[in-house]
Amino acid sequence: MSHFNAKYFFLFIVVIVVVALSALFSQLYREQLPMGLMAMTGYIVAIIIAITLVWLLTQKLFSAETSHTGNETISVEELFSYTHDPVTNLPTAQQALKIFASAIKASTGQRYAAVVFKPINFEQVNSLLGYHNSDILLLQLAYCLRQKIVNNKKLLSFAHNLEPVRIARLQSLQFLVVYNLTDNRFDDKSMLNELCQQLGDAVPDALSFKSFSLNFELAFGIAISGEHGNSVEEVIAHAGDALLNGLQSQQVISYFDNSSILYTQSQLARMESLRQDIEDEKLFCYLKPQVNINNYHIVGFQLNVHWYERNDHKPLELSEFSTLAEQSGELYRLTKYMFEQAFTTLETLHRIGVYQRISVSLASENLFEVDLVDFIEQKLQQHGIAGKYLMIELNEQVMLNASQRVKNIIDQLKSLEIKISIANFSGSYESLRYVRKMAIHQLKVDCQQLTNDSSNRVDKAITNALVTLTRSMKIPLVGTNIDRHDASQAYIAMGGELIQGDIIHSGVIPEEIELWLEKWYLQHPESIPPEAKPSIY
């Protein structure tokens, strides 16, 4: 009963009591009994006591009703729906965690293995049949697995009823069984491998639905309590990690490796070290000259960056730590730092009358944001440099994976007269289509494996074809990583002209670019540009 109805019910009872008492005293008065002060006082006291008793009785009645409502029990069907997955009718992850935790707390010294597994070839079913129909196949799989292990008393049961259910469903397509290793007299791995084999054998040869047939394949990840974690959540999470690692390494059964935790900690330490060095600008930039080998004219520079990790003697190049920078969230700041170095170097070159392009590599597709375009435009205006002297270099794979949003960003960069270069060009059909549509200004081919003898015929044939192709397309082709004379000779013999590599210079730091140019022009006076000021040669 609501509070509103209870109020009026109580008032109704009070009115009845007052009327009854009034009628009683009225009857006594008619019989000519004395109505003195004592009688009036008794009348009022009786009314007060009656009202109080009615109020207490009403409160007790309502509180009992509310208590009864709050303690209302749910049915067996409702309990089942709360604790079981609606698709497979298996216990949910929450139910499994609760039972697993209770088993470990029941007595000390208990050892359990959490086995997380999934069908590795099920994703295609959703796309072909839809989620509703694929759930029917998943129900068939769950039923077969449940029936196969129902009598294995080494496995925990996750059910409240008398019939054991020794398998639970986790998130996505993952399932869980928990094996009791406490009294195991044999090697743990041999017993767990046998369990995985038993589960694998439970899968029927083919599950069919609406003329669609699928042979399930299972992959397993295993973690043992005490060895791979102390809490239930940690053990199951580590078993899931082992499953993911096994899928990556194409292993059917994978055990959690504690060294992966140390590896993660090591990665976090590296990320923090790199983040700090980027923030403190402790990275080292250098310029790789690009030269026309026919007349020794300088046609541009590529800006590269090195990172000395923990003061190691061998530095890491951008391609070797760009993923780490992206994971640490500092790749965008690193890229802006490289652009700052490029603009400062362009100012130095223009001051001495050398007007050549500097290319900056964008290591990830995620860098293509409107903020980057605004930043570059702002720096062009701040340094008073035309966009045609800046070139942005993309790896071919980044280019091929580019979304429409990335292509729009590239169009915005080109509207600022910024040139676009493609590195590691392979000459594939997809690459050629992109080059034709996007009007690329420069291509680069890796010549590291080139030799001037009969070896590496395939690489030489591919490079030779690219030289011929780019010449017919009238797109400049730069041979990169030309670090030896035999590679240079082989590239020139094919008709290549533009060279970049250690054979020209291993890397000029921006602060010494003017000094290097002076030495280069002294060695090759025919390459001095007419705009160059006499002070540099």
TrEMBL record:
UniProt KW Ribonucleoprotein keyword: no
Keyword Transmembrane helix in record: yes
Keyword annotations: Membrane, Transmembrane, Transmembrane helix
Domain GGDEF: 110-258
Pfam families: EAL (PF00563), GGDEF (PF00990)
Domain EAL, first and last residues per copy: 267-521
Matches recorded under CDD domains: EAL
Name of the protein: GGDEF-domain containing protein
Organism: Colwellia marinimaniae
